[in-house]
């Protein structure tokens, strides 16, 4: 074991300075800390927080939300745009709207709206339920509401009523077919609508969500539909209702070049529309897409980004400014719909390790030399094990693989017994481990042997569901930083992959962040007898809860909202208790009382038949009812 390991080694190994800046670090106790407030040195020790919560009965898996991080991200984005607007002398304003779909949790949206007031934050709704939430939460006089998504007359009518509440509401036409509905409803209600157009740009994003743009994208109007819209609005005497041009080229745009290209096209479209008489058009809404550097590599890899928030703001503003100045049109007010960049950082999922599965023999001293009576295949495997050296590692590996294959065939034909087969299996893994140890650090390692780290990695069984808490890790192979939240002053010695609680072979995490590529294993500590070992998955605040599902009926985890208080004390603002078993069962139409009645009937029958005693029946019913009211995860 490396005795000289320090917290600096952990900072480097888990790349905390890369993805965690400026919020996460490690203290002298070796615990992960969060410094959630900009310009404040107050910190929260995450391990101590978990220990305190456990004493209060709030157990992992647990989602911690740092309210101050939400505030800080809103402020940072606003300040980046303010800076370049000032530096470049851009002649209009910037506002950001938070797309509710990115995190619809009430406490999150309320916190954003409350704090966002200081930074003119508005909301974006993409559906009727989101619209109704936004109408209730937005402040009346300065609220900005952007309405996207499929619309019917109900949606349009409700959005127009929002305008009557004093909320500036822009109905963005996502499809050409929405135009006649907007005109008809606005006329019927006698409300002048603020209309936006979502353009299908030819410029494409780069990354996983590239399908959001281009000619075949699901939403947006083609150039021809845009000019037809203008003609219709002119004919209706409503061209002064056209106030906003919108585009969205996808989420997590990894390269700044894609953003610049889209901005150029959109800026020309804006100027073009003004040149054909849309003089009330004075807003450009650049959609979402501002990425998050999940792996800290600052590259155009799908879980990263090759630009900073400031560069993003600079390019949006400067491209717009340059093209407007060149053509001679006024600078439009800029709106962005960044969701991921505002909320990803604020949430951390903490879960405990329930057990570890190691391959092969744990102690090499336990390996026994075969006797003359043993089958030759066991002798061959033992030879391979004994002979491993730096020079013949590949040869020994080949011999071991051959012996293993032979043993399987011999076992299937009844030639060797179960005990011999087990011995051979153990020796195989011991040989592989020996080869890995011998070749580690060598300049050249043959490809076959390079796979050994992954092959030999331990499986850490963890108390969470990938499908419920980080579904993108499964659905699109998205990488999230994952690391222990304590013992960071000790060297991690085990290469591991993580398996969740579901009975699904996809319910695992075997890809981890790396600066150059993707790591196939995560280095962790050996859990200690009688002590909990906690891991954290970071930057999970965007999309994950919303997309999470009830695979195997694992429900929402417990969640808490914390802020920093005086000094290094934390304030527990909200505790949202996770789903109980009966709650998740009710989502799939089971009724708790009906289930209890059925089990009670069966227990009564068993008592009547003399199969169980009264006391056993009472015990059974107590456990069953407690189970229904309990947490869906292991406690
Ligand atoms: N706006 C629209 C229209 C979207 O579809 C999305 C999500 O894909 C967003 C904004 C938010 O994008 P992001 O979270 O990448 O900022």
Ordered list of secondary-structure elements with their pairings:
Elements: H1 7-13, H2 16-19, E1 24-26, E2 32-34, E3 44-45, H3 46-55, E4 62-66, H4 67-88, E5 94-99, H5 106-116, E6 122-125, H6 128-137, E7 144-147, H7 153-164, E8 168-173, H8 178-189, E9 194-198, H9 223-235, E10 242-246, H10 256-275, E11 283-285, H11 309-327, E12 333-336, H12 340-343, E13 347-357, H13 376-387, H14 393-412, H15 418-439, H16 447-450, H17 452-455, E14 458-462, H18 466-469, H19 471-475, E15 482-484, E16 494-499, E17 508-509, E18 512-513, E19 518-519, E20 522-524, E21 534-537, H20 544-547, E22 558-564, E23 570-576, H21 581-587, H22 592-608, H23 614-629
Parallel strand pairs: 4-22, 5-6, 5-12, 6-7, 7-8, 8-9, 9-10, 10-11, 11-12, 14-16
Antiparallel strand pairs: 1-2, 2-3, 4-13, 13-14, 13-21, 15-21, 16-17, 16-20, 18-19, 22-23
The chain binds pyridoxal-5'-phosphate.
Residues 99, 102, 148, 248, 251-252, 287-290, 337-341, 542 line the site of pyridoxal-5'-phosphate (PLP).
Give a short summary of the structure.
With 635 residues, the protein is α/β, with parallel strands linked by helices.
Features:
635 residues; alpha/beta; TIM Barrel; Methane Monooxygenase Hydroxylase, Chain G, domain 1; ten-stranded mixed beta sheet; eight-stranded parallel barrel; 16% strand; binds pyridoxal-5'-phosphate
- The Rg value, from CA coordinates, equals 30 Å
Mean pLDDT: 94
Percent range for β-strand residues: 15-25%
The major β-sheet equals:
10 strands, mixed
Classified in CATH, the superfamily of the domain at 91-337 is Alanine racemase
**Given the C-alpha coordinates, what overall shape results?**
globular
CATH C-level class of the domain at 91-337 is: Alpha Beta
DSSP strand tally? 23
- What is the name of the CATH architecture of the domain at 91-337? Alpha-Beta Barrel
